[in-house]
Amino acid sequence: MKTSKNLQLTIVGIAAAIGILLILWKPSVLIYGLQGAGLYAAVALPMALILGIVGIINLAHGEFMMLGAYLAYWFSTQFGIDPLLAMIPVLISMGIVGVITYKTTIHRVLGAPELNQLILTFGIAMVLSQVVNLIATSQPRKLSLDYVTASAKVGELSFGTYDFIFVAAAVLFLAGLLFFLRRTKLGKAAVAVGQNPKGARLVGINVDRTYLIIFSIALGLLGIIGTLFLTSHSIFPLVGGSYTMKSFCLVAMAGIGQLKPILWGSLALGVSESFIMSFQGYGGWADIVFFAIIVIVIISRAYKRTES
Amino acid sequence: MKNCITVMIAVLLLLALPLAVFAGGQGEQGEQVEQGEQAAEKDPIKLGGVWPLADITGDQGSKAAQLAVEEINANGGVLGRQLELSVIDSELKPEKGRSAIERLATVEDVDIFVGGMSSGVHLGQIPSLKKYEKVTMWTGAASSKAEEAVGPDADWYFHLHPWDYTQGQSYVDGWGDISEKYPEIKVSDWFLAYEDGAFGTGSFQASQNLYTELGEMTGESFKSAATGGGDYTAVLEHAKEYGPEVFIWAGYDADALPMLETAKAIDFAPPIYLGAPPGWPQGFGESPLSNYVMLYGMWAPSMNSVSGVSKHFYEAYTGKYDGEPQTYFAPLSYSAIYILKEGIERAGTLEKEALIEALENTEYDSPLGQTIGFSPSNIIQHQGIWGQKILQWQNGKREVIWPFEYQTAEPVYPFPGWDER
Question: Whole-prediction pTM value?
Answer without folding.
Answer: 0.81
